[in-house]
Write a structure and sequence with these properties.
alpha+beta; 5-stranded mixed β-sheet; 274 residues; elongated; 5 strands; single chain; Glutaredoxin
C-alpha cells in the first residue's frame, strides 16, 4: 500500500512538473522538448491510473461488491473439485477391488453402488455421518459402504481402526456389527488418562467388550490387530488419502464424486441416484 501511494505521488509530480525537466535538458531542440513533455505526461498518467486502480480494487472487492471474491473462490474450488473428481473416477474404476479387499463393508457387500468413507471413530462428524449412512442403508439394499478407517488421532483412532479392520477376518457381518457398535457407543474411557500407553490399553479393553457383543473371538482379534492385513489396509487408507488429497474426516466418495465433510442422508441418496 505504501509503495502504491508513493508511485501515485510520483505520477502526480511528473504530470505537474515533468515539463520543467525537459525544458532544462532540451533548450536547443523544440520538437524534441515537445515530444519529451508528452512522453513524461503519458508515463505520469500511466503511473497515476495504475496506482488508483490498485488502491480502488481492494476497496471495491471488500466493501462495494464482496460477492465477486466469493464467486471467484467458488469458481476456483469448483475447478479443483472437477479435476479431483476426474482423478478419483479413473482410479476407482481401475482399483476398486484393492480399495475394498481388506476394508469392512456395511450394507450389501454385493451391491453395485458403492460409498467409500474415510472415517475415524474418534471424530464427532464421522459419528454423525455414520448415522446418516445407517439411515440410507435402512431404506435400500442396493448400496455398500466401504469403511476406510483413517488413523489420524493417535491412540484415540488407531485402536478402533485396527480393531474394525481385523474384525473383517472373522467375517464381514460381524465386522459390520462391530463397526456400528463402535460408532454409536462410547469406547473412550470416562476418566482422564494422560499416559498414552495406558490410554490405548483402556480403549482396547472397551473395544474387546464390544467385540464380544458382536460375536467376535477377542483373542484372535487382538492378534490380527497387529498382523499384516491390518498394516496393509492402514497403508492403503493413507496412500489413497494422499492421492485424493484427503486431509480430514469424514470424506466420502459416492459413485464417482467426492464429498468432504459430513453430509445428510438426502445428499447421499441424491448422489447415489445420479
Amino acid at each position: 500500500m505504501t509503495w502504491t501511494i508513493l508511485v501515485l505521488v510520483l505520477g502526480i509530480a511528473l504530470y505537474m512538473f515533468g515539463g520543467m525537466i525537459v525544458k532544462q535538458n532540451a533548450k536547443k531542440t523544440t520538437v524534441g522538448a515537445g515530444l519529451g513533455k508528452k512522453a513524461i505526461k503519458i508515463v505520469a498518467i500511466l503511473l497515476m491510473a495504475g496506482s488508483v486502480c490498485r488502491l480502488y480494487v481492494p476497496y471495491y472487492l471488500v466493501d462495494v461488491n464482496p460477492n465477486i471474491v466469493q464467486e471467484m473462490v467458488q469458481a476456483i474450488q469448483e475447478k479443483e473439485n472437477e479435476e479431483k473428481n476426474k482423478a478419483i473416477r479413473e482410479f476407482v474404476r481401475e482399483k476398486s477391488d484393492a480399495m475394498i479387499a481388506d476394508a469392512p463393508v456395511l450394507g450389501n457387500p454385493e451391491a453395485k453402488k458403492t460409498i467409500y468413507v474415510w472415517t475415524a471413530a474418534s471424530c464427532g462428524y464421522c459419528r454423525r455421518v455414520h448415522g446418516e449412512i445407517s439411515s440410507v442403508l435402512a431404506d435400500r439394499d442396493d448400496v455398500r459402504v466401504v469403511l476406510k478407517n483413517f488413523s489420524i488421532h493417535g491412540v484415540m483412532s488407531d485402536g478402533p481402526a485396527r480393531a474394525m479392520i481385523a474384525a473383517k477376518l472373522q467375517g464381514n457381518d460381524k465386522a459390520a456389527k462391530f463397526a456400528d457398535i463402535i460408532f454409536t457407543r462410547e469406547y473412550r474411557p470416562s476418566e482422564k488418562i494422560t499416559d498414552q500407553s495406558k490410554l490405548a490399553a483402556a480403549i482396547e479393553k472397551n473395544l474387546m467388550k464390544f467385540a464380544e457383543e458382536a460375536g467376535l473371538d477377542t483373542e484372535q482379534l487382538k492378534k490380527d490387530m497387529k498382523g499384516e492385513v491390518v498394516a496393509r489396509e492402514l497403508a492403503n487408507v493413507r496412500d489413497l488419502a494422499t492421492r485424493f488429497e484427503i486431509t480430514g474426516t469424514p470424506f466420502l466418495i459416492i459413485g464417482e464424486e467426492a464429498f468432504p465433510g459430513a453430509i445428510p442422508a438426502s445428499a447421499i441418496n441424491a448422489a447415489l441416484d445420479k
